[in-house]
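Holo prediction — beta-D-fucopyranose.
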Amino acid sequence: MQYKFPKNFLWGAATAAHQVEGWNHNDWSEWEKENASRLAENTENNISSYTRRWKLPDYIKNSYPSPFSPENYISGRACDHYNRFREDFDIAKSLGHNSHRFSIEWSRIEPEEGRWDEKEIAHYQEVINALRERGIEPFVTLWHWTLPVWVAKQGGWENKKTIGNFARYAEKIVESYPEVKFWITLNEPEIYTMNSYLRGKRPPQKKSFFKFLKVYRNLAEAHKKVYIIIHPTWVSDTQVGIAKNNSYFEGWLAPILNYLWNNWFLNKIKNHQDFIGLNYYFHNRIKGFKYNQNENKWVSDPVWDGNFWEIYPEGIYHVLKDLKKHNKPIYITENGVADARDVYREKFIKEHLRWVHKAISEGTDVRGYFYWSLLDNFEWDSGFAPRFGLVEMNYRTMERQIRQSAYAYAKIARENSVTA
Ligand code: FCB
């Protein structure tokens, strides 16, 4: 079957500054220095000696950096995308992408409170120009989880002052690049607050339910403030949204979780968004009081570098159908799989798109799809081990190697249709 997508559909891939640029100095880079050894030990301890010796697949055993070594958990030069963005956009163009999502690193733009680094502002201008020159539409994220060290020292998003500081930074950025049409203010506020405050696993590792709520609210305020700044002052066809990670829940708790996790934030900002960015990765079947009772039928052979995330393409359909009630255009701002061997990726993309197509054919206004990610990159506290890229990174040589699935996705983008 051939599934044709709407005219002018956007096809691309996404990245985030801290994960690809290299040599960032922010709250994450500080945290990595302190936690790399612990993260390496945890990985070692989570694997039995039997598995380590006999069952660990070669591609994990031989991977560089090794997930059992601290260097895996230090972003360092990452993909050196800061210097190689042109080469990377050449690849995106050669793969038929007509759009690209990336983020601007606040800590580069405002390394000290109130001091703008004009060189860095010029750098992102070059990034935007490089995309435009290649006929690629930029989707620009203003905040993808990292904070300048001075902001973190002031309490980060717990401190209401950060809302004003973020708005001032956003205003500077938006004024600097008036040609950008699509702005994503925040990436996954719910995943950030959950990991950093509810579970206390990622910086600033403050485990507290009250802080979690406070930060979540402050993020919603920050988004609204930036929306208002962008709208009255800027050209009317500028589109502003967030990238929201929604899960497909099943089971008796599904309606409550769907409301709290998937819709609370969107309802809170409903008069302050032009589109919804959807990041879809998760299905969560609840049985009794147990979460994630998923079967993972799709994968016969575990995807080790994907930390065994379940693959459940149908979920994207249900999530999209649920989002329809907000009556906004939807862009899928992330969807992807960590699969170093590239055995599942092509099918993963096609199956998800088949379900996206079904949602569209039933009246959901989906206008674009960004695969996560263009390149393998620094996957936060999992380090370099998960390989999400359409393009494989050799972290020793910085060589880029286009994966087979990337060509399959290129065909989809060029033909504006999926054959599955
Ligand atoms: C999302 C993040 C992105 C990347 C993918 C795998 O939650 O937005 O930066 O880590 O997961």
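READOUT: The mean pLDDT is 96.
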